[in-house]
Predict the structure.
Amino acid sequence: MSEPVSRREALKRLGATGAAVAAVSGTALWLHGRRPRGAAPEPYALPSWAVAKPASAPDLVVARGSPAASLVTAALEEMGGIQRFVQPGDVVLIKPNAAFDRPAWQGSTTNPDVLRAMVAACMDAGAREVLVTDNPIHVPEGCFRKTGLGKAAEDGGGSVWLPRKADFGPVALPDTVLDGWEVFLEPLKRATKVIGIAPVKDHNLSRASMTLKNWYGLLGGPRNRLHQKLDETIATLAGMVKPTLSVLDGTRILIRNGPTGGSPDDVIDGNVLAMGTDGVALDAFGATLLELGVADLTYLQMAEQWGHGASDWMALDTREVTV
Amino acid sequence: MRIANVRVVSQVFFLLLFFACLYMATAPRISGFPTSIFLEADPLVAVAVTMATGQLYHIGATGLALGVILLVATMILGRIFCGWICPMGTLQHFVHWLGFSRTAKARLEGNAYRKWYWLKYVILIGFLVAAAFQILQIGLLDPIALISRSFTDAIFPVIDHGLRLLGLGGIAPSQTPVYAGAWFIGIVFAAFLLMSLVIPRFFCRALCPLGALMGVFSRFAVWRIHRDPGTCTGCNLCLKGCEGASDPHATLRLSECMVCMNCVEDCPHGSISFKFLPPQESAKPWPDLSGRRAVLAGLGGAILFPSVRRAGATVPLSGTPGWIRPPGSHPEADFLARCIKCDACIHSCPTNVLQPAGLEAGFEGLWTPILDMRVGYCDITCTLCGYVCPTGAIQRLTPDQRAGEAERPDGTDGPVQIGTASYDRGRCLPWAMDTPCVVCEEVCPTSPKAIWNKKETVVGRDGQERVMQRPYVDPKLCVGCGICEHECPIRGPAAIRVGSYIGTV
């Protein structure tokens, strides 16, 4: 017979076994039933970024003339100053249309001069940071480079946020075509103010691409499928994003072959810029620039019907300025 | 400083330069840099492409004419390229330095000449004879094409992915690129490198056709390694670090010597030197290849033409090939007479649309660039692939030349067409399922758009009439960029696909 183990040794060895068993079981208990990696997170309900409107302030401002940057300054002033929208410490997210890897003169993207002026205005108002972002159709890096929007954002004191896979998550929009859809959420979560700057463009399927269609650039997922319900999708976007301010950039107007353009013949100088908080009203005004009416824009009628804005912009407190 | 250490500095410098070229050879960094300089300075590329095309390709001072410089250097100094410059050689050197036995016995055996090292000359002759028949396959084993391709397709994406995981941002223009068949390219490359653990510089000594070419030309070298038999004690220590397995301890095999200078350093008696015009009889000037083997190798190269080209895979007997080549590419047969499968174009492509072909482009087309529109699309303002192409297989165009707004060297006019899109009406939503869509029309980049819609009234199963916008392609306007195919929401094969129907309509 071998020597029996001492009590001390037995306790030590049993203790080691016990600790190992406890560690493995504990880890298993901790891991079991957890949300698997890559599982869809809970849909996120976007807040409204709208600010209260002072009684004396207009609903909509139309600025005409040139250069583009002065239109921004003049329109902002008429709106009641940038201070109406941006307070010191704000994180401002600006969403231009950077959809295509094309030079600005082609009119398929937001005018960089307009973006630069807007970014600078936000920084002057004391914004902590200004993020400029879009999830374009072409390769994002090329889009921000070739359109000049990347440089404009940086010149104005802002920074470009290029979309990464991890930035996207599902949005909560019950009973709409976009409920649970992948949206470019991260910059939206970080922003305390949101400003859209959209060019005025011809579009075959929706007839026009303006401030409401611009929010399409916040969508991820298989968004090419949404074309099957394009009007419904755009109208839904009008309810999804409640921006602090919306800018309709008609400094150049893409009158045909949209939304890509490609030829100087497709673009005219619009020399106009409109600002407001109601995308429906802005798009209704923008339609006139494309020689269209509200009756031509199904999405606009839907958006109005769903209570996302008013298309009769002339009935609003609309003011004009000329530069 | 010891001469062998100078050599190590040179090797590290050129390896880093190679990586720097690779790093720079992509948007937005590329502008103005001679990123393809290693490929252009490769004499085998110059010789083989010239044999296949009858022209020493160059643009200004760059291009394959640079290869002649290295060939001349080889005729004066021997295979300094192999020992001092070649990044593929340096990597193998590094692998066997890391992992090969450090005992003198193992190293003497590892660096002994093996008689099957004639294999590389057979490969060279076979490839060159084939090249004379316009079958250019040197890229399979040319070390610069091989390392360029391997880093582009297999290693670069791994590094890029890793950097992104670490939150350091990638080095690719946008997302980490994906390449079809990269695993195989990577395995071949890894196998060549790891063979250095069994036999140091196995690839260089046994397979490398560029080394073989330089081996032939080093016969004229006026400086070379010379052993003084008067002071030599026959200790064989010179063999210990011999990179080329060139028998420095006996009669030097000049064609194998990589001028690494290790023997000069390792000789305890100072009997070995790098000498100007040493006596003829202290070296064997020619490779160890029998005439019969050379003739057989030539025959092997010659049969590639009937067996590969005429077998119909390159240009199907039905007419044009079923794959799409990059913008500015020569017609298929001329393209294949120039493409060395270095995949520099694939590396430069900002949208990842360029992919290394597997066997779908025929045996000849293995690892040549083809477009996969489901992965990316061809940006119609981009000409990077032609800019980096070292051999002009993809012609160097300016964006204006590509758009047809400036004259092109080949005399063709209008925008460059790489293919033509056509609808699969059995899959297309407005055509087959009465569902609105036309994403293809939205993204079509030409002005006016090549894709246009016709409003058609259709009667559904429910008897209801509705107006559908049904898309059509205008083949005269379509440039084949493939963004329609890329953005088509139909899963599986897209409902609009780009094929090579150019000239059909």
